[in-house]
């Protein structure tokens, strides 16, 4: 039963991501508002691509053989993007995006880089202590939601998935961070910091040019 649920979970994730990608491309070339039928047709097309055989193996199988344990925040981001480009619903605000990129960058750096700095400490091992990990993640989720961040719901989803053993890994950290989410977060957070650094400089230049 668990294996069947995992298959459904993985297939749905791939279809949603492909659906969002197709919708984003379609909007670029046809910026007019989509009808419900157009959105459904894009969804059908995404499902067809997901089951398209490549070398005799469906695309969704190849996707998860390449990345078999995507974390819940990464999958949640895919759902949020899908809602934005397909349903035209902005479920996350700027603060939510900043919080997600910051969490991914900090958590991933601690988890993946610390062995190079502190060889006698294994943070990943603490993920096997599910009670401790769940308490930490639960506290972060409560703080985020209490602070008005909907992004905290992704941590709640990760806790629920951990309780259900929804992913192949049984380590709690794998439910909230993975290498792709970490690298994506570093890139996005870096872009945000660069834009923030350039904005005052441009404002200062404009002010200097004002008589």
Précis, in short:
The protein folds into two domains: 1-66, no CATH class; 72-198, no CATH class. The protein has nine helices and two strands; from the N terminus they run ααββααααααα. It has helices at residues 2-29, 36-50, 59-66, 72-85, 94-117, 123-126, 130-146, 152-164, 179-208, and strands at 53-54, 57-58.
Q: Can you put this structure into words, describing what you see?
A:
The protein is mostly helical and 211 residues long. The protein folds into two domains: 1-66, no CATH class; 72-198, no CATH class. Helix content is 73%, strand content 2%. The protein is built from nine helices and two strands; from the N terminus they run H-H-E-E-H-H-H-H-H-H-H. The protein has helices at 2-29, 36-50, 59-66, 72-85, 94-117, 123-126, 130-146, 152-164, 179-208, and strands at residues 53-54, 57-58. The protein has a two-stranded antiparallel sheet with strand order 1-2. Strand 1 (53-54) and strand 2 form a beta hairpin. Helix 1 crosses helix 2, helix 1 (2-29) crosses helix 3 and helix 5 (94-117) packs across helix 9. It is globular and about 55 Å long. The chain starts with a helix and ends with a helix. Residues 206-211 have low confidence and may be disordered.
């Amino acid at each position: 039963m668990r294996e069947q649920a995992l298959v459904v979970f993985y297939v749905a994730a791939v279809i949603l991501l492909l659906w969002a990608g197709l919708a984003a491309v379609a909007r670029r070339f046809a910026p007019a508002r989509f009808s419900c039928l157009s959105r459904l047709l894009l969804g059908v097309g995404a499902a067809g691509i997901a089951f398209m055989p490549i070398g005799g193996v469906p695309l969704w199988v190849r996707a998860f053989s390449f990345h078999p344990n995507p974390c819940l925040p990464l999958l949640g981001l895919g759902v949020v993007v899908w809602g934005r480009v397909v349903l035209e619903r902005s479920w996350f605000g700027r603060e939510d995006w900043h919080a997600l990129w910051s969490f991914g960058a900090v958590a991933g750096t601690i988890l993946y880089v610390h062995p190079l700095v502190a060889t006698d400490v294994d943070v990943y091992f603490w993920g096997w202590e599910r009670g401790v990990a769940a308490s930490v993640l639960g506290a972060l989720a409560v703080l985020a939601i209490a602070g008005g961040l909907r992004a905290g719901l992704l941590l709640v989803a990760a806790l629920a998935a951990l309780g259900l053993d929804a992913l192949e890994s049984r380590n709690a950290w794998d439910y909230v961070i993975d290498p792709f989410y970490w690298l994506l977060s570093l890139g996005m957070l870096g872009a945000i910091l660069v834009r923030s650094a350039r904005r005052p400089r441009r404002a200062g230049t404009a002010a200097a040019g004002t008589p």
